[in-house]
Amino acid sequence: MILLTLHFPIYIWSQYVLSCLLCTEWFMSVSQVPSEKILRASKVLRNTILSRAPHIIRDRKYHLKTYRQCCMGTELVDWLMQHTSCVHSRVQAVGMWQVLLEEGVLNHVDQELSFQDKYLFYRFLEDESEDAPLPTEEEKKESDEELQDTLLLLSQIGPDAHLRMILSKQPGQRTVDDLEIIYEELMHIKALSHLSTTVSIYKPDSKKGTSWYIILKGSVNVVIYGKGVVCTLHEGDDFGKLALVNDAPRAASIVLREDNCHFLRVDKEDFNRVLRDVEANTVRLKEHEEDVLVLEKTNNRGSTSSPLKYTVMSGTPEKILEHLLETTKLDSQFTESDPALDDFLLMHCVFVPNSQLCPLLMRSFTYHAQPSQGSEQERMDYSLNNKRRVIHLVLQWAAINTDHLQEEDSSFHFLQVSRFDPLCRVSVAKFPRCHHRSPSGCEALSSADSFHPLVAARVYCSDHTYSTIRVPVSASVREVIAAVTDKLGSGDDLLLIHLNSAGDKELLKPSDVSIFSSLSINGRLFVCPRDQIDSLTPLPEQEGPSAGSMSTFELMSSKDLAHQMTLYDWELFDCVHEHELIYHTFGRQHFKKTTANLDLFLRRFNEVQLWVVTEVCLCPTLSKRVQLLKKFIKIAAHCKEFKNLNSFFAIIMGLGNPAVCRLSQTWEKLPSKFKKFYGEFENLMDPSRNHRAYRLTVAKLEPPIIPFMPLLIKDMTFTHEGNKTFTDRLVNFEKMVSFLHKKQTNKTHIYICIIFNLFIYYNNRRIE
After folding, report:
1. Whole-Å CA distances, 559 to 370, 562, 612
2. Might you name a Gene Ontology BP term for this protein (predicted)?
3. CA-to-CA distance for 103 and 215, rounded, in angstroms?
4. Whose CA is closest to 604, among 563, 637, 641, 648?
5. Which of 40, 105, 141, 228 has the largest count of CB atoms under 10 Å?
6. Which residue in 177, 195, 63, 174 sits closest to 120, CA to CA?
7. Contact 297, 282 (CB under 8 A)
8. Cα–Cα dist 217/688, whole Å
9. How sure is the predictor about 335, in pLDDT bands with cuts at 50, 70 and 90?
């Protein structure tokens, strides 16, 4: 039985992690009955070490005492690093050995419960007896064959074991690296992934000892008296969150569904103390007794001129802009980029559109408060510096928005009237314009107005005749219907229908925009009166191919195919502007803007996935299908090598499609080498702990990479839906920062204090 009771606060203040020493009481013992998998893993590792490096396991002397048949911690880590490519760091190797230590198949000679990469002695369970047999030649051969699968298994569960090892330490023993690992692990938990990286401020009245639990491992039933089990919560879910906000009695009981459940616990008393610390470092600027700007005060490490730094938490658009201008550094070239200013310029469309921002910029440039003291020259310098700051901001604004500024009359007029236009044109010229590709059934056209690209698209009638219309990429459904009505000369009230190859019909809303770029694979647009909707049928061309392309496909090099796919994917990805992600997440109908490039990149993922399924299912012979599976696995491996994660995941998900998975005879004939590769690739798609396996892999890659876009969209959606855009009529600027930095958290903007307790429960017992 394991019972681990901890109190450990994590303070992340700017880029520094501080730990608070609290009294810790903990009890932990290794598992008395190791699982069969880990027992076998231990045997495989021991046999392989005795076969390849027998000097690692030997009698050792230390302080006049002999320790028989021991291994040294550093040598075990070195050995792992040399024998597998799935181990990227010594920290990861430590976690893998910690798995064996927790299960009791590897033991420290003094019974310590944590594995360390040091001159410490460890002994395999089999070597505890004096007459431990050496492996036979047959056992050595079997262990060699199983080694890579064993190392892959340990690499998957090692991070959890390493985290538990860190949590079992007393707070004073945890290093900065330990606390960084804890923080990163917390960000991978589903219950925390959508939250802002700062703690919300509220003032609970009661001091009752209630708690919030987050499930790390296992599952629980939620039971309500008189109703029984109402739902089941799994890994990453949480319960008891409202206990941190109010003192209402619990409406349900939580009962474990299985043994060995792990939880993180936040106690209200500790959390309240954290809130007081956060409030003490919050600065509020008021006007007419109301907050207009809320700043976070942090230590500005590394700066001798200003020891404190003030980061925007929330405020009115005017005050946020004013603060960012005041804090802009005036070096000769403006070489230092301010992340907060970049975030403001990218996200301002959410809370202050160009039509409102332009007057604010003009006012900041023209009118500003004059200093009451100083010489005339000093006051002139002050005025000049203010203008320089505004010019710097406008240049960045133009560079980030490129042709978006010239699509709107208000911003275009502002650049001309304010005489910023020549400067901004120079800035914009340095950045390539996004190009809009056309989906199936559409053809891109040039336009006299280069900032409003057009497409020529077919819209079908119920009798499968069609009309070709010419509309902007961002055209709404209402505009498309008007163009078709004008072309047909029809006076009927027409509706626009999206019809896919299966015959499913979707009635499009009049306000929907960018409809041509968001069509599904083999989807087509139909226009008809309401009474003809039921009679619509797919076009023959929507049924797809009837034969595969294996005959030509197998002649192509897998690496060349992956390379060409990567070049094409990169061209699509490079055209996606950050604003398209914002429009897609917040709702493009609110902005009346196109997300054509993003839509086509997302569509590309579906195309590759369905291409894999189609080719495999249309392959008529068993031997050819086996060759095709091998081909796709090799292409996926090369896509991963080229850091094209979007196509990599599309191929693997295609192979995991039920239509392909059910081909049991084909998979049985696949060589074990390719089965192992496919197994490794599948593990990267493991959704547990908020897709931690994928996130850890991406964190180790050097840019440029082509990311798995559906997961990025999911992250942004969680950030948007889990955080209000406005709080008390102020812009929640922390949400804007969190939204943009979801993939790589900007810790200079963070002050997070979370007190967690880890509980590992056995037996079916009631928690609350």
Report:
1. 65, 5, 16
2. Ras protein signal transduction
3. 21
4. 648
5. 105
6. 63
7. yes
8. 10
9. low
Nearest to 499 by CA among 456, 543, 455: 543
Structure tokens at 756: 């967690």
Angle formed at CA 206 by CA 205 and CA 209, multiple of 5 degrees: 145
Q: Write the CA distances from 270 to 20, 238, 343, integer angstroms.
A: 12, 18, 33
User: Pseudo-torsion of CA 729, 735, 737, 741, nearest 10°?
Assistant: -170
For the record, the structure tokens of 635 come out as: 């292409």
Residue 49 — pLDDT band, cuts 50, 70, 90?
Answer: very high
Question: By CB neighbour count within 10 A (0-12 exposed, 13-18 middle, 19+ buried), where does 221 fall?
Answer: middle
Q: What secondary structure, in 3-state letters, does 249-263 show?
A: CCCCEEEECCCCEEE
Q: Give dist(CA 753, CA 273) in Å, integer.
A: 9
């850091």: which residue's tokens?
A: 643
Is the distance from CB of 436 to CB of 594 less than 8 angstroms? yes
Q: CA 89 to CA 96: how far, in whole Å?
A: 11
Q: Which residues contact 62 (CB under 8 A, 6 or more apart)?
A: 121
CA distance 10 to 387: 42
Structure tokens at 266: 């936040």
Q: Is 644 helix (H, G, I), strand (E, B) or coil?
A: strand
- The residue among 286, 2, 334 whose CA lies nearest residue 164 is 2
CB 48 within 8 A of CB 135: no
Of all helices (H) and strands (E), which one includes residue 629?
helix 622-641
566: Cβ contacts below 8 Å, ≥ 6 apart: 639, 642, 644, 647, 706
More confident residue, 668 or 366: 668
Output the six-digit token pair for 372: 């009451």
> Between vectors from CA 529 to CA 525 and to CA 531, what angle results, nearest 5°?
115
Sheet holding 16-19, edge to edge: 16-19, 8-13, 751-761, 261-267, 211-217, 238-239
User: Per-residue pLDDT averaged across 139-148, rounded?
Assistant: 90
* CA triple 710-715-716, angle to 5 deg: 100
Rounded CA gap, 201 and 485, in Å?
Answer: 55
Contacts of 611 (CB under 8 A, 6+ apart): 654
Q: Are 537 and 500 in contact (CB under 8 A)?
A: no
Q: Which two tokens stand for residue 149?
A: 């699968």
Tokens standing for 726?
A: 């406005």
Q: What's the longest Cα–Cα distance across the chain?
A: 102
Calpha distance 539→675 (Å, rounded): 39
Please tell me the least confidently modeled range out of 420-434, 596-610, 684-698: 420-434
